[in-house]
């Protein structure tokens, strides 16, 4: 096993959000199906659960021109919703925009999410070590409210969101922009996330340190920065 040695003291650690710190409180398939049913659209939750990750993967690498900078990313999620609910929604005569608004609003509240069990303890431990903490996520302005609702806002000195920066992971421009916004060189930034490319290879290619969790076998409790020697396996 190869190891990459890291300085014991990292000026700033940036965390991804979904899949790293938090996850939907109820499976997406069940939530989408229940809300669609309230609007009169019937789609099996099992079908949604199967389609959603496939649709999301097709939107994975967003051209910079399609990423907003005003924090509002409703159009992006509208397209994902419509593709996920296709073909059932294609000939549905109901109010599509009302369904979009309900789902978009739902995931902007803390009740839609749950923290992974170790998160608070890990954040407290890093803060106790004097490590500055931040967020770097491919999300929109709703993240601010979610973090506040979950009682996490106090941990982070900076929250950087793709829809407020005008670029998304894994675009190299984003990582350079993050370094500029924070005012630290890339070598002083360390990204923790769950995506091998977005949170691992892409930021490392731009000079960041990084560590990728792989749940359930590799959780945040195994983060090397929590140990005394700061070694990344």
UniProtKB/TrEMBL annotation:
Gene3D superfamilies: HAD superfamily/HAD-like (3.40.50.1000), Haloacid dehalogenase-like hydrolase (1.10.150.720). InterPro entries: HAD-like_hydrolase_domain, HAD-like_sf, HAD-SF_hydro_IA, HAD-SF_hydro_IA_REG-2-like_cap, HAD_sf. One of its GO terms (molecular function) is hydrolase activity. Keywords: Hydrolase. Its EC number is 3.1.-.-. Pfam families: Hydrolase. It is an enzyme of class 3 (hydrolase). NCBIfam families: HAD-SF-IA-v1 (TIGR01549). This is Phosphatase.
């Amino acid at each position: 096993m190869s190891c990459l040695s890291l300085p014991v003291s990292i000026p700033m650690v940036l965390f991804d959000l979904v899949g790293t710190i938090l996850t939907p409180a109820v499976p997406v398939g069940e939530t989408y199906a229940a809300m669609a049913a309230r609007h009169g659209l019937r789609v099996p939750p099992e079908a949604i659960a199967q389609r959603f990750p496939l649709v999301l993967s097709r939107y994975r690498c967003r051209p910079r021109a399609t990423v907003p900078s005003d924090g509002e990313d409703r159009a992006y999620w509208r397209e994902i919703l419509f593709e996920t609910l296709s073909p059932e929604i294609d000939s549905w005569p109901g109010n599509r925009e009302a369904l979009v608004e309900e789902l978009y609003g739902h995931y902007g509240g803390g009740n839609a999410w749950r923290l992974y069990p170790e998160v608070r303890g890990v954040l407290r431990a890093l803060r106790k070590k004097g490590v500055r903490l931040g967020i770097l996520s491919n999300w929109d302005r709703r993240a601010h409210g979610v973090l506040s609702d979950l009682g996490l806002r106090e941990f982070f000195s900076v929250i950087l969101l793709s829809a407020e920066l005008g670029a998304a992971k894994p675009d190299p421009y984003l990582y350079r922009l993050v370094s500029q916004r924070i005012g630290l060189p890339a070598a002083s930034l360390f990204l923790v996330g769950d995506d091998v490319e977005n949170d691992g290879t892409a930021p490392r290619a731009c000079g960041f340190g990084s560590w990728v969790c792989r749940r359930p076998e590799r959780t945040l409790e195994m983060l090397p920065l929590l140990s005394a020697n700061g070694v990344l396996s």
